[in-house]
Specification:
Low-confidence stretches of chain B: none
Order of helices and strands of chain A: HHHH
Order of helices and strands of chain B: HHEEHHHHHHHHHHHHHHHHHH
Distance between the termini of chain A: 56 Å
Low-confidence stretches of chain A: none
Radius of gyration of chain A: 20 Å
CATH architecture of chain A: Orthogonal Bundle
Largest sheet of chain B: 2 strands, antiparallel
Number of strands of chain B: 2
Number of strands of chain A: 0
Strand content of chain A: under 5%
Mean pLDDT of chain A: 86
Number of helices of chain B: 20
Largest interface: A-B, 32 and 28 residues
Helix content of chain B: over 70%
Oligomer: heterodimer
């Protein structure tokens, strides 16, 4: 298999780095959560890719199916997706409360507000 | 028989009690529920510890699915020891939590503290007990998500930003672990720890396994606040409610250190993780930098809670140094310090919580004269501080003793010297608090001693600091057995 043939992993790599970059660079808390989501999604694609078998179908118990994809990574990633949703929900809920408390969702403004320097 | 299912009950009981707290809502009832569940967990952990020590490793197949396919809970001396620490600290701190939480948290949110607490306990116990690497990730996220919630319930509005910071860093760490697990699965086709340990040697030389290992180490180190990945810790510890800080400081980072041990010595071989990947040198350097730089930063803090938080990062440094030595004595020192640090930081943060209860502040300047007005609280703080420094007859001394012993075993006099020298920095920052509390005039106004319900749990931990400092035979025996097991001597 050529390097290009494994293009899934290139996509994973690209998404992972751009997600991390967004988390690090943006000062807007909501954008940070978006970055985190992109980062996590890259891992979902990674897991789905490792379970895929070329030419394989879904793992159904039937007589004429001999080649099928590995279902385990796909099931695992369902759990990770749920975790990702929970993280996003909690992150957004925190942002709502941060907005009520600081009247801003921008990191720079929050950290320069009066009581934040100690 | 019920006793055969103890490993499952260890995790399932707090997991079921958590949603019950949301339903009950009434704050005293939820506290009682959390308290009793935590104590039940503690007794289960103790009985598991006894069983593993005398009868050997317990393997429990969840739902009756046999090991490499189903999820296995595997209890040996190492994790039974950690289970006992986690549930024990949680139980003592919960005794304390009621009044402290009622004062620091809005009354409508109190039941959420106990819900989060029980979920966090579930997660931490789950990470420790499980023998399946994907299960580790799931429990890690349970404990992390609930600890973000717990931090955000602090009295200051900055608790919210601290929790958000923690969430971002924690999620990156957990996702790194997920990537690492994925890469290992790719090469071995298994998630069971014992199975992984057998299959990894064949593929150990591949880049995929190397990358997986790197992701795992980075992710877990982030969770354990190994210097320089400790960025989230000071804020989270400073702004969380006092009882929560004591709980997290005594348990969360400890469980992550345990995970590092498990991956380094059980799943990968010690020659691979420490020698081939050169982590012995890396961890040693990071550990030494941590004990000096973080102690030094602690000396300059005006907020006592933040000071103790930085000191926690320094203390993780000692554990990491113990691991990096990769000898039986070094590992024993690391594992003993895991237990001892939970005791001393628990005692210190609880004493600090008493101060918050009365003075409503953790700024150093506000502590002036507290030594005379709150004699029992400050005495607890002083004993905890002495233990942190490593004065004989406290647990801190036992940790430092074994760590120095381990350094001398390798003929590294410089390391032994550095460990002692960095303890002097702890003298400095503890002294600043003692000086303010005992030798500065108190401001006008009457301040009472903290109530008995807060003092009692604080002094239980202080007494444990002294007891296990004088009679260290049991802890040392457990730690030695654990170290031997990790190194495969057993």
């Amino acid at each position: 298999m050529s390097t290009i043939g494994l293009y899934n992993y290139w996509i994973v790599f690209f998404l992972m780095m751009s997600g991390l970059y967004v988390v690090i660079v943006s000062t807007n808390l909501i954008k940070k959560i978006i970055g985190l989501n992109i980062f996590q999604t890259s891992v979902f694609i990674f897991y789905i890719s490792i379970g895929k078998v070329r030419g394989g179908t879904a793992p159904i118990l039937a007589d004429d199916i001999t080649l099928y994809s590995n279902p385990l990574p796909h099931v695992l990633i369902l759990t990770a997706i749920v975790v990702g949703v929970a993280t996003t929900a909690l992150g957004l809920a925190l942002i709502v409360r941060i907005h009520t408390a600081f009247n801003s969702v921008d990191e720079e403004q929050i950290y320069t507000s009066k009581d934040s320097r100690d | 028989m019920i006793s055969a299912h103890l490993p499952a009950l260890q995790v399932v009981i707090p997991l079921l009690a958590a949603p019950a707290c949301v339903v009950i809502r009434q704050f005293t009832a939820t506290w009682l529920l959390a308290l009793s569940v935590s104590w039940i967990s503690f007794f289960i952990a103790l009985s598991l510890l006894w069983q593993t020590f005398h009868l050997g490793t317990i393997s429990y197949s969840l739902g009756g699915w046999a090991a490499p396919w189903g999820i296995e809970y595997r209890v040996d001396v190492v994790n039974a020891f950690v289970l006992t620490i986690v549930s024990g600290i949680s139980s003592v701190v919960l005794l304390y939590a009621k009044e402290s939480i009622e004062q620091e948290t809005h009354i409508k949110r109190i039941h959420l503290v106990y819900t989060g607490w029980l979920l966090c306990l579930t997660g931490l116990l789950g990470i420790t007990i499980t023998g399946d690497v994907f299960n580790v990730f799931v429990f890690l996220e349970i404990s992390s998500l609930s600890s973000y919630l717990l931090v955000s319930l602090g009295p200051d509005r900055r608790a919210l930003t601290a929790a958000f910071q923690y969430l971002v860093m924690g999620t990156i760490g957990a996702t790194f672990i997920l990537i690492g697990v994925g890469l290992l699965y790719m090469m071995t086709g298994t998630l069971n720890m014992a199975d992984l340990a057998q299959r990894i040697p064949e593929v150990e030389h591949t880049t995929t396994v190397h990358a997986g290992f790197a992701f795992l180490v980075l992710g877990i180190s982030l969770k354990a606040a190994v210097f320089p990945l400790h960025y989230w810790l000071p804020n989270a510890y400073t702004f969380a409610p006092s009882a929560v800080t004591a709980f997290l400081a005594g348990t969360a980072t400890k469980v992550s250190i345990y995970l590092l041990l498990r991956f380094f010595f059980d799943i990968f071989s010690e020659t691979f993780s420490l020698r081939t990947m050169r982590l012995d040198v890396i961890l040693l350097i990071l550990g030494v930098i941590a004990i000096f730089s973080m102690s030094l930063v602690a000396v300059y803090q005006q907020n006592v809670k933040r000071m103790l938080a930085y000191s926690s990062v320094a203390q993780v440094g000692y554990m990491v140094i113990g691991i990096s030595l990769a000898t039986a004595t070094g590992l024993t020192a690391g594992i003993i310090h895991l237990f001892n640090h939970a005791l001393m930081k628990g005692a210190l943060f609880l004493a600090l919580g008493c101060i918050v209860y009365r003075l409503n502040s953790v700024e150093l300047k506000d502590l002036a004269g507290a030594g005379r007005r709150m004699p029992w609280t400050m005495a607890a703080f002083v004993v905890g501080g002495l233990s942190l420094i490593g004065v004989p007859a406290t647990v801190g001394f036992i940790s430092k003793w074994y760590l120095v012993l381990a350094a001398l075993e390798r003929d590294w006099w410089w390391l032994a010297f550095m460990i002692v020298a960095s303890s002097l920095l702890a003298v400095l920052y503890i002294w600043r608090v003692v000086e303010t509390a005992y030798f500065k005039a108190a401001p006008a106004g009457h301040i009472k001693e903290a109530p008995l319900s807060l003092l009692l749990p604080t002094w239980i931990l202080v007494a444990a600091n002294i007891y296990f400092g004088i009679n260290a035979v049991d802890t040392v025996n457990f730690a030695k057995r654990a170290a031997d097991q990790l190194l495969g001597v057993f």
